[in-house]
Amino acid sequence: MLKSISRTLLGAAFVGGAFMPHAFAETSINALFMAQAAYSEADVRAMTEAFSKANPDIKVNLEFVPYEGLHDKTVLAQGSGGYDVVLFDVIWPAEYASNNVLVDVSARITEEMKKGVLPGAWTTVTYDGKSYGMPWILDTKYLFYNKEILEKAGIKSPPKTWDELAEQAKIIKDKGLLATPISWSWSQAEAAICDYTTLVSAYGGDFIKDGKPAFQSGGGLDALNYMVTSYSSGLTNPNSKEFLEEDVRKVFQNGEAAFALNWTYMYNMANDPKDSKVAGKVGVVPAPGVAGKSEVSAVNGSMGLGITTASKHPEEAWKFITFMTSQQTQNQYAKLSLPIWASSYDDPEVTKGQEELIAAAKLGLAAMYPRPTTPKYQELSTALQQAIQESLLGQAKPEDALKSAAENSGL
């Protein structure tokens, strides 16, 4: 009898003179995020702590992996039911939907969400007319430039076209201000595909047409030719072929690059005098266009939060996702990643101190170009990464490298 009473007390609370069963019942959910510089691990933990205070009956166990491990960790955990909530890249919904990795949450999305979130953000989580989560990180790559170096070179305004970028870099190099004025993320990784996609969008190229690869000619070929010319001309930092985004940020912050293509997060980090030698000298504009083809260029680098089909606690998982993607949470961390909510861009608390970035974002986010939507994305990306590397290293001509990539793309 005593044992029975004590067991009851463990799951009950004494409220208003009566026992209330399960007042302290707690549901645990597991969430997988990536270790990154925008919303850092500390930021995600702080957001989760705020969620836990508002929802004491839900415990969230967080796990962080590098971006490169996020996809495989998600897929491999499906059998064991390891995660309830996962962060996913814009390139994965097609594969995840086809392989039943994520829950279709279309019915959970309210009218307020539909109207309030920027239209471009929804493309992050949508495949075949269904939504597989909520957009969380809304991002594209921008052209960052060092205002002081451009001024010293006598350059009045940042480039509006990719050809102008090369011309300005040459002026800077010829004046002896920097040996290699441009930095890119061209390591054999997804980062290189993001830079390549930005250029494909500028040149009006296609990745896939009628279900077949189309990048081996037209804008796809023009984009890779531009990369190779920039690299072989000596205007691009030769280490770009090994750089990821964080390497680019560090080079730019040290004052060793006049131009750099990178994500939103670099703006406030490069302007932080504690860590950056170029604080106060950072300019940002949308990535340039191509004369006669585009005004600006941009890649969709956004990410979403979804519920796995293996989750045993989808209600609690959705509650966590809606908190993390809420306008209140996003506005609070807007210096790290710009909000998905349209009205946030008219909020002085969001725009203050980053007016230049917001101005660039209004153009860049509207021009976001998707990487190819296909369940075979991983194979296609791997083939393109190899083609870019071979071309940069002079091991193959761009047209031959892209032809091989098309053959190995799985399409």
From TrEMBL:
Pfam families hit by this protein: SBP_bac_1 (PF01547)
Cellular localisation: Periplasm
Record-linked Gene3D superfamilies: Periplasmic binding protein-like II
Keyword rRNA processing tagged: no
InterPro entries: Bact_solute-bd_prot1, SBP
Organism superkingdom: Bacteria
Sections of the chain in a coiled coil: none
Primary location group: periplasm
Signal peptide: 1-25
Membrane recorded as keyword: no
Keywords in alphabetical order: Periplasm, Signal, Sugar transport, Transport
PANTHER family: ABC TRANSPORTER PERIPLASMIC-BINDING PROTEIN YCJN-RELATED, ARABINOSE-BINDING PROTEIN-RELATED
Family classification: Belongs to the bacterial solute-binding protein 1 family.
Protein name as catalogued: Multiple sugar transport system substrate-binding protein
